[in-house]
Amino acid sequence: MSLTHLSNMCSHLNNVSKARLGLTSIVDTKMHRNLILAMQQQGLIGTIVRGGRSPPPPHLLLGQPTATSVAADGSSAAGSSIVETEPVTQANIASRRLWLGLKYWQSEPVLGKITPVSKPKRRITMDLQGLRRVIRGSRSGTVDGLRSPGECLFLATDRGIMEARQCVEKKVGGLVLCRVE
């Protein structure tokens, strides 16, 4: 898991949100795919399409997809949120992109400021007690508490990437990845 790529993704999504773009692409890695799926479950991202360098057809971003869905681990699944537009081959595996359709509400981006918490030189982990304090709004270690209802904190756990409230429900801790305000 490369936290350098996570920092690049966070700054890219910040720039896209400030520019008020409706469509963007990021590099397709396992960590990015799982983090974007977690963001979509929280309602921050609209649609996710897995494709190549060129953008997907507009009907995949606007309506119900007709292509096969792909789970986070790459296997086909009926309930997944990622749509695949091109087959994966050895020739195009390095150029795979995740195309994200961003959400807007009353002309404001739903995805606000996204900041990485753990950095490549300093990985921050939290246990269950620390997560409970952060969710209640208190500071725990170097992580500030959640201040607003729409704020999210994403963690990498042994059960996958989850939001902090889900981690407390499932009683697990993990590596703090990023905060979305």
Automatic annotation (TrEMBL):
InterPro entries xref list: Ribosomal_uS8, Ribosomal_uS8_sf
SUPFAM superfamilies reported for this sequence: Ribosomal protein S8
GO CC annotation, single: mitochondrial small ribosomal subunit
GO biological process entries: translation
Domain of life the protein comes from: Eukaryota
Keywords: Ribonucleoprotein, Ribosomal protein
Coiled coil: none
MF terms (GO), sorted A to Z: structural constituent of ribosome
Family named by the database record: Belongs to the universal ribosomal protein uS8 family.
Entries under PANTHER family matching the protein: 40S RIBOSOMAL PROTEIN S15A (PTHR11758)
Name of this chain's protein: 40S ribosomal protein S8
